């Protein structure tokens, strides 16, 4: 902690000022009244909110009072033992006042900070929902218009282009959703709505959402019927699987099969999403979950998908890892605790 | 036959434009409103057959529009809202919406929802279709029997009640709350029990339960049985 020279300087100045005032008041006030002047000085220092300088001011007050006013004056000697009691009580009172004043100040500051934080949070979330509305509306119009034209049996060439518009707009919509959910997670604005769900159900809704992306791709699933339920936020966990599957499709082009399996472990359920693509470079392995890190940049992606997977899984008290598979391809393995850790 | 009319409520011109184009292309008459107030007035004046209601409107909360509309109209309402706004969807269904669409949506999805909504509105007067057929699944409500392909499927009473409830509302989302009430009318059950029941039922009626063809989950809202084959 830095030494608060300014605050100690202030304490010394207040001590001097109190002493000056006492000299002025000495002819008209009794000795015990002068104690009040010093206590008032100590209180002023304490209100600045620092404990050390406040105690220093208290001690200084006692010493000045002793030196300048308690007979014999201008010595630290004390004629009557009763003054020792006065000093002790004076110091104790000054110390307690300082302590209370410092605490009041700290509380006032904490309240103010909490207010500012709440205000910032409110602003942030209203901004976020405004921005997300502004980003989603044009995308909804593009996707709607493209699919509307696709309904009119266009020529093959046009059909292909319209499908491209639709698919890419959908991809952009997923990216926007990722971006917004990442921001929400990081700002702490998300409270997980965890309820016990079958893993199969959550994986199923993710696959359903990616139906078009998965057209023509083989997905092998192996999820035992009797897996225990796990407490998850269904929408956020769906987002995890959407991202893992989308990632696998992008990095394993050429239609190799995806494999999704789940197993019951001691105190968790382990789910893995695996592909038969080229796998991950050794150098990428420790970094794939970092935000904006793009493994195999040629395959594209904003480097958000896996980062949000990690954030969501960890918010559930689970873990996520990436490895290469023997025989080629990558596997992402995540664990979800069976009991709600929160 | 006069064309069925759809009242589209949305404050975004670009959205209205493609909705009008695709609905008219498919033989519907389209009415448009860009505010909640205009929507209520138009609904009262023109009595549309279906209302497509976006929940984010400039003047009134979309749910408020729904609530007021429901005081005098039983026309099917499909609410439209963004992904993630599940609470609004659930609330919308509670307030009497028939279904919902998540933005962004494709036109096939929109047309399917409108068709289902119209069919349910008509059927409310008639008897329900006694047999549901979709792909390899057949449910005979009169005989209380279920087949997957040629093989008869044995379901527990709760599993059957679940499936029958979804068949009666085929194509339409059925809220968790409503299913709980139908399957356990005496109460005392939980969404968790419902999820387990759905899970078990899927393992009887789906060939690949993790990628269900018939019984779909609407995350954090409810379930939907795919439309029967025409």
Note down, in words, how this protein is organized.
- The complex is a heterodimer of chains A (342) and B (230).
- Chain A is of the alpha+beta class.
- Chain A has three domains: 5-112; 123-186; 195-337, Heat Shock Protein 90, CATH 3.30.565.
- Chain A has helices at residues 5-25, 31-46, 51-69, 82-150, 156-186, 199-209, 234-251, 305-315, and strands spanning 195-197, 219-222, 230-232, 258-264, 268-274, 319-324, 330-337.
- Chain B is an alpha/beta fold.
- Chain B has two domains: 5-123, Rossmann fold (3-Layer(aba) Sandwich); 131-225, Orthogonal Bundle (Arc Repressor Mutant, subunit A), CATH 1.10.10.
- Chain B has a five-stranded parallel beta sheet with strand order 2-1-3-4-5, with helices on both faces.
- In chain B, strand 6 and strand 7 form a beta hairpin.
- In chain B, helix 2 runs parallel beside helix 3 and helix 6 crosses helix 8.
- The A-B interface holds A 132-133, 136-145, 147-148, 150-152, 166, 169-170, 173, 177, 181, 193, 195-198, 200-201, 203-205, 207-208, 219, 221, 223, 225, 229, 234-235, 238, 260 and B 12, 14-15, 17-19, 21-22, 25-26, 56, 82-84, 86, 103-108, 110, 191-192, 195-196, 198-199, 202-203, 208-212, 216-217, 219-220.
């Amino acid at each position: 902690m830095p030494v608060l020279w300014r605050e100690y300087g202030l304490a010394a100045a207040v001590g001097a000022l109190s002493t000056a005032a006492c000299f002025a008041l000495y002819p008209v006030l009794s000795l015990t009244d002068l104690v009040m002047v010093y206590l008032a000085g100590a209180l002023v220092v304490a209100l600045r909110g620092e404990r050390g300088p406040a105690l220093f001011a208290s001690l200084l007050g006692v010493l000045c009072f002793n030196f300048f006013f308690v007979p014999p004056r201008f010595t630290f000697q004390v004629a009557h033992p009763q003054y020792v009691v006065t000093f002790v009580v004076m110091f104790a009172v000054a110390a307690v006042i300082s302590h209370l004043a410092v605490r009041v100040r700290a509380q006032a500051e904490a309240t103010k900070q909490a207010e500012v934080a709440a205000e910032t949070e409110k602003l942030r979330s209203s901004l976020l929902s405004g921005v997300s509305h502004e980003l989603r509306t044009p995308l909804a119009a593009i996707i709607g218009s493209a699919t509307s034209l696709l309904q009119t049996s266009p020529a093959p060439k046009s059909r292909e282009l319209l499908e491209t518009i639709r698919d890419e707009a959908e991809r952009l919509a997923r990216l926007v959703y990722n971006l917004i959910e990442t921001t929400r997670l990081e700002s702490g604005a998300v409270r997980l709505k965890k309820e016990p769900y079958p893993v199969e159900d959550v994986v199923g809704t993710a696959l359903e959402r990616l139906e078009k992306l998965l057209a023509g791709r083989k997905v092998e699933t192996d999820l035992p019927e009797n897996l225990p339920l796990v407490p998850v936020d269904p929408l956020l966990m769906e987002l995890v699987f959407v991202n893992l599957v989308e990632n696998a499709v992008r990095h394993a082009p050429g239609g190799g099969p995806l494999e999704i399996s789940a197993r019951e472990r001691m105190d968790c359920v382990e789910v893995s999403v695996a592909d038969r693509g080229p796998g991950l470079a050794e150098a990428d392995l420790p970094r794939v979950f970092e935000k904006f890190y793009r493994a195999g940049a040629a395959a594209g992606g904003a480097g958000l998908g896996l980062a949000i997977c990690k954030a969501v899984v960890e918010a559930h008290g689970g873990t996520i890892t990436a490895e290469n598979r023997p025989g080629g391809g990558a596997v992402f393995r995540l664990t979800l605790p069976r009991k709600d850790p929160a | 036959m006069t064309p069925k009319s759809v009242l589209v409520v949305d404050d975004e011109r670009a959205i209205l434009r493609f909705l009008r184009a695709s609905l008219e292309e498919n033989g519907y008459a389209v009415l448009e409103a860009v505010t909640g107030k205009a929507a209520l007035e138009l609904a009262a004046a023109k009595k549309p057959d279906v209302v497509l209601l976006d929940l984010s409107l400039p003047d009134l909360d979309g749910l408020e529009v729904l609530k007021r509309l429901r005081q005098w109209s039983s026309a099917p309402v499909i609410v439209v809202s963004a992904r993630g706004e599940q609470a609004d969807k659930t609330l919308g269904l509670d307030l009497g919406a028939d279904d919902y669409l998540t933005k962004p949506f494709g036109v096939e999805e929109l047309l399917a929802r409108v068709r289902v909504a119209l069919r349910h509105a008509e059927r409310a007067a008639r008897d329900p279709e006694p047999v549901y057929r979709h792909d390899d699944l057949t449910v005979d409500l009169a005989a209380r029997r279920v087949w997957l392909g040629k093989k008869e499927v044995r379901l527990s009473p709760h599993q059957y009640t679940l499936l029958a409830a979804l068949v009666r509302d085929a194509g339409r989302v059925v809220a968790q709350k409503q299913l709980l009430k139908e399957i356990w009318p005496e109460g005392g059950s939980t969404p968790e029990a419902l999820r387990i029941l759905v899970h078990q039922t899927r393992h009887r009626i789906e060939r690949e339960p993790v990628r269900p063809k018939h019984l779909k989950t609407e995350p954090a809202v409810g379930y939907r049985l795919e439309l029967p084959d025409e």
